Description:
Blueprint: E1 10-12, H1 14-22, H2 29-32, E2 37-40, H3 41-48, H4 51-64, E3 67-69, H5 75-85, H6 90-102, E4 105-107, H7 111-120, E5 125-126, H8 128-138, H9 143-155, H10 167-174
Parallel strand pairs: 1-2, 1-4, 2-3, 4-5
Helix pairs in contact: 5-6
Amino acid sequence: MTKKSSETKILLDCDVIIHFIKAGKQLLLPKIYPGRLVILDKIYDELMTRPSNRVPVGNFIAYTKIKVIPMPKSIEIIKEYAVLKKTKGVGEAACMAVARHTSDYIASSNLKDIRIYCEEHSIVYLTTMDILLEAYKLGIMSEIECDAFIKEVKSKDSKLIYNINSITAYEKLKK
């Protein structure tokens, strides 16, 4: 039996969390996908290796109440993770291994590492821009707020997919 999309967990990868922190909009994430966002312990550990992340990430988790969950102990997931880790980052490998065997979604903007694998295994993935577009469609963020988010994240040396500077341009691209 497959889960309804409203019940499916979304596994947050490092880059999406960092993008929302850089834009100062991290508290909006659980409003966009209420009760669906989780962070695997491997992603949490990866985030916390950088000292500059410790306070903002710690605050993000404390205030949003997004759960940090342990990597599942399933032998299939562990094997998949070990294989993926040879060529992918820890976070991407963990998210992809879990999503492949649980039907959960991935939130990652690292398309270079995840796109082909996700498409081959029918894994749904959301980029930061997809999440931002959802916030816009739900009325959680205005067009001006979304455009300011994009500008802020880019000004802090983070890359968002494509060279798009407005949420309406991204919305047109997605149609």
